[in-house]
Structures are given as C-alpha cells and as structure tokens.
TrEMBL record:
Keywords: Membrane, Transmembrane, Transmembrane helix. PANTHER family: ALKALINE PHOSPHATASE LIKE PROTEIN, DEDA FAMILY PROTEIN. The keyword Ribosomal protein does not apply. It comes from the Bacteria. This is Putative membrane protein. The keyword Lipid metabolism does not apply. GO terms for cellular component: plasma membrane. The chain crosses the membrane at residues 20-45, 57-81, 87-106, 118-141, 147-170, 182-203.
Length: 204
C-alpha cells in the first residue's frame, strides 16, 4: 500500500509541471496494460489547473488508453502462450507481479467473454474492474479485434469525458466527491446504460 501511495503521489506531481499532458498520455497508455495507477487522478488535477482544456485532456487520455489497450491485446495475442499452449514467462511475470492478476481470474474472464462479449470489455473500460486484465485476456483468447476496439473507445471515452465534464462544470468542489465515490458512480452509470440497451431491445 505504501508503494501504491508513493506511485499515486508521483503521478499527481506531474500536474504541477509543464509535462502534465505528456505524463497523462503515457500514464493512460501504460495503465491499460501493466501500470497499477489509473489516470483519472492526474486528469482531474490537470483539468482543475486549466478548465478550458478539459475536453482536450479527456481526448488525450482516451486516445492513449485505447492505444495502450491495443498493446495489452498484442501482448495477450502474441506473447501469452507457448506453441504447446502453456503460459509463457511473460504471462507468469504478469501473474506474479501485477496485483490481482491471477490465473484463476484470467480463466474467469474467458467464461465471461463467452456470456457477455462486448459488455465485459465495456464494463472493464468504464468501471474499477482492472482494465489491463481484460485487454491482455482479449488478445489471449482471440476476441474479435474490431469489437474490442469499439468497446474500448466507447467505455474509455465515456469515463474520461465524464470526469472532465464534471470538473469543468462544477469546479474544485466536485473533486473530493469524485475521488470518494467515482467507483460507485461508474458502476451506477454502467447499470443504467446496459439497462437502457436491454429496454430498447425488448421494446423493439
């Protein structure tokens, strides 16, 4: 926990430097495949520092995150299995060093793909579910790439533009609220969105 806190503080300090947007891009890219700290905190800090650039920062974050997701997909597709269908040393490194990334979770994700397809990628992209687990396993299990990209763009864009909009609209007073309740807000939004699609499906 102390290490994660230090990483979190290190991430935030970039908001006070001229390299904040570049750091945001790199962080969003890395978080989609291996880095443990999500880019939301730095995005919030940057938007607070320049609300006129709020949506530019959100776009920056979205593009980088989707590109990072493609890196995760590539790792899973090309570097995850040996020719004999066993885990490679790279896969074992992830299992042993990325918090929460376990073999059991990896195969649980495969079962979820069979049932939910697009929605498992979308939900992971928008909610607190570790996105890197989904991006890598998508490649490892040969999930349709076009569907993966679409789900990533929609979910990551919705997440980061929502954060940017709230800060742009309500200013500093919303920061504490987002920090405290963002995970619950993300889950609630996802439930409402999926419910809307289900309602449309049955209405048609």
């Amino acid at each position: 926990m102390k290490l994660l806190r230090k990483l979190y503080d290190w991430v935030l300090h970039w908001a006070d430097t001229p390299y904040g947007p570049i750091a945001l891009f790199i962080l969003a890219f890395a978080e989609s495949s291996f880095f443990p700290i999500p880019p939301d905190a730095l995005l919030i800090a940057l938007v607070l520092g320049s609300t006129t650039k709020a949506f530019r920062f959100a776009l920056n974050c979205t593009i980088a995150s989707v590109l990072g997701a493609l890196l995760g997909y590539t790792i899973g597709h090309f570097l995850w299995w040996t020719p004999s269908n066993e885990f490679t040393s790279i896969a074992m490194f992830f299992f042993n060093n990325i918090p929460g990334f376990t073999e059991n979770l990896f195969f649980d994700v495969q079962k979820m793909y069979d049932q939910y397809d697009f929605w498992i990628v979308f939900t992971a992209g928008f909610t607190p579910i570790p996105y890197k687990v989904i991006t890598i396993s998508s490649g490892a299990f040969n999930i349709n790439l076009l569907m993966f990209i679409m789900a990533s763009v929609i979910s990551r864009g919705a997440r980061f533009f929502l954060v940017a909009f709230l800060i742009w609209k309500f200013g500093p007073q919303i920061r504490t609220f987002i920090d405290k309740y963002f995970n619950w807000l993300a889950i609630a939004f996802t439930i409402l969105l999926i419910g809307g699609f289900v309602a449309i499906k049955y209405a048609i």
